[in-house]
Specification:
Layout (H helix, E strand, L loop, with lengths): L9 H10 L22 E6 L4 E3 L5 E9 L5 E12 L9 E7 L2 E5 L1 E3 L5 E4 L6 E3 L4 E10 L6 E13 L2 E7 L3 E6 L12 H7 L7 H8 L8 H12 L3 H24 L1
Parallel strand pairs: 2-13
Antiparallel strand pairs: 1-3, 3-10, 4-8, 4-9, 4-11, 5-6, 5-10, 7-8, 11-12, 11-13
Helix pairs in contact: 4-5
Length: 263
C-alpha cells in the first residue's frame, strides 16, 4: 500500500478508510501509485469556495481538481473530505455536502472521529477515473444548518484509490478555510416607554366652549331664533302660529338694532 504520513489529519484519513464500503463488484485493479517516491500520483486542489457561510443559508459551491501526474490511469478514485473546526463543536448533521457525479448531486455522509473531526467519503458509484496527464474537476456544494454556531472551519481532501477490499492513498489537497456566521434573527419591535405612551395618548376633549355656553346668563333659555324655528315646526301654517312667528321675527330685529346702536 502506498501512503505518505505527513499531515495532522492522518488519523482522520485512516478512519475514513473504514467509511469506504466495499461493493460486491469490487476487484483488485492496477494501482497508479507506483514506487514510493514520496509524492502522490494525483495532485489534488480545492478552490473556488466562499470565505464564509451563513448558518441556515444557501449552498456555497467549490471545486476539487484531481490531476494525474503519472503515465498510468487512476481508476476507482474516491475523495475523502475532512472538516476540522476550531471550536470542535461541529456536528455530523450540520454540514450538508454534496458532490456531482454524472451531472447529479450525491450526498456525503459525515462521521465523527475521536478527535471531534468530521470525515466524509465519496462512496457513490465506482469512483472517478483520471487518465494520464489529465485533470478531473469535481463540483461540490456545502450548506450549514441554522443551528450551527459561529466557528472557523478547515477543509482538507484526501484521495483513495480502491483495490477490492483494500486501497491506496493517492492524493491530498491543500487546506480550504472558511468562517461560519450565525443565523440572523428578525429584529423585535421595541415596546414604547411610559413617557412615549403618555405623549401619544389621545388628548382630552376641550369642554371650554361648552362650559362657557353653560355659564352664560341665558344658559338653558331658547333664543328668539330658536323660538321662531320651534313655532315653524309646530304650527306655522295656522293663523295663530303665523302671528306668533311674525312677532318673534320683529322682536329679534329690534334686539339686533338696539345692539348695533350701543356699539
Amino acid at each position: 500500500m502506498f501512503m505518505r504520513l505527513c499531515t495532522p489529519v492522518t488519523l482522520c484519513l485512516a478512519a475514513a478508510a473504514v467509511l469506504l464500503p466495499v461493493p460486491a463488484y469490487a476487484e483488485a485493479g492496477p494501482s497508479c501509485a507506483g514506487p514510493d517516491t514520496g509524492a502522490f500520483p494525483l495532485t489534488t486542489r480545492l478552490h473556488g469556495g466562499p470565505d464564509s457561510y451563513r448558518a441556515g443559508g444557501g449552498y456555497g459551491t467549490w471545486y476539487l481538481d484531481l490531476t494525474n501526474t503519472t503515465r498510468r490511469t487512476c481508476a476507482d478514485v474516491h475523495p475523502v473530505v475532512v472538516l476540522v473546526d476550531a471550536e470542535r463543536a461541529l456536528k455530523p448533521s450540520q454540514p450538508h455536502l454534496e458532490y456531482y457525479a454524472d451531472g447529479r448531486p450525491q450526498p456525503v455522509r459525515f462521521e465523527t472521529t475521536d478527535e471531534d473531526e468530521l470525515v466524509g467519503a465519496f462512496t457513490s458509484g465506482p469512483g472517478f477515473t483520471v487518465a494520464p496527464g489529465r485533470t478531473v474537476t469535481v463540483e461540490l456544494r456545502l450548506a450549514l444548518t441554522s443551528d450551527t454556531a459561529p466557528n472557523d472551519v478547515t477543509v482538507n481532501a484526501a484521495v483513495v484509490q480502491r483495490h477490492g477490499d483494500d486501497g491506496d492513498w493517492v492524493g491530498q489537497s491543500n487546506d480550504y478555510r472558511f468562517s461560519v456566521e450565525a443565523d440572523p434573527r428578525p429584529d423585535s419591535t421595541p415596546e414604547p416607554d411610559a413617557d412615549d405612551s403618555a405623549s401619544t395618548a389621545a388628548p382630552e376633549p376641550d369642554d371650554s366652549a361648552s362650559t362657557a355656553a353653560s355659564g352664560a346668563p341665558d344658559a338653558g333659555r331658547l333664543t328668539l331664533a330658536d323660538e321662531a324655528a320651534e313655532l315653524a315646526r309646530t304650527g306655522l301654517a295656522s293663523p295663530a302660529g303665523l302671528t306668533a312667528a311674525t312677532c318673534c321675527f320683529l322682536a329679534a330685529g329690534a334686539a339686533l338694532l338696539l345692539s348695533r346702536r350701543r356699539r
